[in-house]
Amino acid sequence: MIQVWMGFIMRSCLKNKTVILILFFSLTIESVWADEFKAAVHNVIVMPENKYYKLSADIKYYLSPIAKEALYKGISLSWIVKVKIQQKGAIWDTTLEELEMGYQIQRHALLNLYSVKNLNDGTKNMFTTLTAALASISKIRYLSIIEKSLIAADENYQIAIKVLFDREALPVPLRPMSYFNSEWALSSQWSLWQLQK
After folding, report:
1. Which of 1, 97, 151, 165 is most buried, with most CB under 10 Å away?
2. 3-17, 31-45, 136-150, range with the lowest pLDDT
3. Where are the domains of the chain?
4. Structure confidence by residue, pLDDT tens digits, 88-101
């Protein structure tokens, strides 16, 4: 009787071990994919000009196959570029200014064109390719982010930038899946740069 139970337990452990290994490799692949499709911020430059500090930066958008398929089927994709200017403190940082720039890309099947809508001012531009549409939202140039008079010479400041993929802008049936499928993890992490005075 004991041998029968031991045989059953050993077979169960082997089955569970297989399931655990499959889950482990699935999660590993998911996390690799999640990193593969995150937006990234590069080449950040902040320069004083006239009364303001002005920001220039490049953003690289990586679209997963599922995001490209959604676009192809006419579903719009939206991103919000968040910029914070923070005064560094001993315990926590204080946010002095916070800016947001929103963009929405959509494919129009009848025209075979992509539209890019600026969600801040409502302007819309049309592009013949997805690459061109993404390129149009990939550059921040000379954006006034804070008045020079608000920056004290004896304090330390940093610029924080995040590209947030707006899952809540997806159609309602897609939203729950987008939180559990790493191919919808299209946001960047917060990136920090010292403000050079």
Report:
1. 165
2. 3-17
3. 1-36, 37-194
4. 988 899 999 999 99
Q: How many CA atoms lie within 13 A of 32 on its CB side?
A: 6
**CB-based burial label for 77 (10 Å; 0-12, 13-18, 19+):** buried
Q: What is the pTM of this model?
A: 0.79
Would you give the distance in Å from CA 97 to the centre of its chain?
20
Q: What is the largest CA-CA distance in the chain?
A: 88
**Amino acid 11: pLDDT:** 53
Residue reference for tokens 């550059």: 139
Strands across the sheet containing 124-127: 124-127, 113-118, 94-108, 77-87, 157-165, 191-194
HEC sequence for the chain: CHHHHHHHHHHHHHHHHHHHHHHHHHHHHHHHHHHHCCCEEEEEEEEEECCEEEEEEEEECCCCHHHHHHHHCCCCEEEEEEEEEEECCCCCCEEEEEEEEEEEEEEECCCCEEEEEECCCCCEEEECCHHHHHHHCCEEEEEEEEEHHHCCCCCCEEEEEEEEECHHHCCHHHHHHHHHCHHHCCCCCCEEEECCC
CB 54, CB 47: distance < 8 Å: yes
